[in-house]
């Protein structure tokens, strides 16, 4: 599965998303959610396999640089029943550190 490069907000690092080897084999309970790959040894990649049932995007608040107003999850009019996890770098997804996203 190809890695999808998310466009970063200005001044922020890009976030890599893909599906982990565990999830590719449907060993979903073993997937840590964040993983590394040999071809990107210094980057953490967020697993976006459907089992996680997580939609990810950057919230409007974070997009405008008002990170203090972002709670970490948000909803959008086009997905009214779906909670979307904000993957803006301000929530702690950084190089060299595995940090769980806020609930
Ligand atoms: Zn999975
Ligand atoms: Zn996974
Ligand atoms: Zn932010
Ligand atoms: Zn945010």
Task: Describe the structure in brief.
The chain has helices spanning 21-24, 60-63; strands at 4-5, 16-18, 34-37, 40-47, 55-57, 73-76, 79-86.
Which tags fit this structure?
103 residues, 7 strands, binds zinc ion
Based on secondary structure, the structural category is: mainly beta
- Domain tally: 1
Give the fraction of residues assigned to helices.
Answer: under 10%
Shape: globular
Strand order of the largest sheet: 1-2-4-3
**How many DSSP H or I helices?**
2
Strand content: 25-35%
Bound molecules: zinc ion
**Biggest sheet, open or closed, and with what strands and sense?**
4 strands, mixed
Mean pLDDT: 77
Radius of gyration: 14 Å
Order of helices and strands: EEHEEEHEE
Taking the alpha carbons of the first and last residues, their distance comes to 27 Å
Strand count = 7
Low-pLDDT residue intervals, each spanning 5 or more residues = 94-103
Q: What does it look like?
A:
The chain is mainly beta. It has one domain. The chain is built from two helices and seven strands. It has helices spanning 21-24, 60-63, and strands at 4-5, 16-18, 34-37, 40-47, 55-57, 73-76, 79-86. The chain has a four-stranded mixed beta sheet with strand order 1-2-4-3, with no helix packed on it. A hairpin with a 2-residue loop joins strand 6 and strand 7 (79-86). One zinc ion (ZN) binds next to loops. Residues 23, 28, 31, 49, 51 line the site of one zinc ion.
